Amino acid sequence: MWFRQASQTEAHKVGYARLPSAQVGRPPKTARILNYVSRFLASMLIGSVIWLAKTCLMKLIASTFHRNTFFDRICESVFHQYVLQMLSSPLLMEHVGQESSGLARKDKEINSEWEAKAAAFAIFKNVARPGYKYIEEVDLLRFFNEEEMELVLPMFEGAYETGKIKKSAMRNWVVKAYLERKSLAHSLNDTKTIVMQLHNLISVIVVIIIIIITLLLMGIVTTKILLVISFQLLVVVFIFGNACKNVFEALIFVFIMHPFDVGDRCVIDGIQVVVEEMNILTTVFLMNDNEKTYYPNSVLSTKAISNFYRSPDMYETIDFAIDVSTSVESIGALKSRIKRYLESKPTYWHPIHTVNLKDILDVNKINMALCVQHTMSFQNIREKNIRRSELVMELKKMFEEMSIQYHLLPQKVELSYVDGSTR
Q: Most CB atoms within 10 A, among 170, 196, 224, 364?
């Protein structure tokens, strides 16, 4: 009994030990095919892991890039959209049975400045009480609570000081919100295109790597053949090395430096331009006369770029000259008038300013400079010029009312008579 049990155990061990040799006994052709299949499956597994890592990396790059670049702008755009929806909603009107003139009667997307102005008129009619030419805080409280009012009211021009919103202020705000949303949409679309171009480029590189790994594992390409191919690639790199360098610099410029987005107003080589379109290799700019200019990103990476959109509230300097005979009291009164004017326009100017007496020239004029700070950057160049023009016009009125003038020095003129004629 013991001998039989031991024999069965030994037979089991022998059978288990000979199990791998079953493959050895197969025909060489079958074993070779199985070997190729195993290597192919292993290469596919490695390729799948590499492709998965590439996909996860691209998703991470895209999400990080969008979050760091557009998060604040998206939040601001969403808040503007919320304000528009609330102001156009008929549900909070005092008279529920009254027909609404707002935009919420039929959801409609604003696609042009003209539609934005029409929407502003409809919103004003929906919010303002019948017969009123202004929207007051009482009207807004039907749509927002006290905390939201503190955020909504300063968005409208002149509303923070007076507590009233004019039709023009409502129109300007709706148009501004539409333009900012349009610019954000273009920026997101161009960024999506850039990310897709980068994704395609990385995909080509990964496919080449997977093919090389597969050929090596399958034994089709040996290290000697790979070495020969490498020498050929060196020749190709020598020929196209400059192009590869430009592509690499462009990628660094777009994804790491990223000094601007679509719609930003910038200064490059002393010229103001607006970013129209961004690609991996080139960026399209609009000049002041709407002329399109194409810049290689590899060239832009070497230039100093000023970005108005990303700048904080910017300063403005206005130079002027007055007569040296102007009294100190008149200069002091002029400073007081300028201070009162700036404080009366808190939505245009910060109260902190300086009036500098720079120098006295030719003992007949005093060069002065007024330095003020806007409540915005110079992204909206039209609004900036309007504010500056109003300030210069106000200075002119002050000079006229205070009789502050400037006179040229008297010029000496000599007359001589030669042969009865005057020279």
A: 170
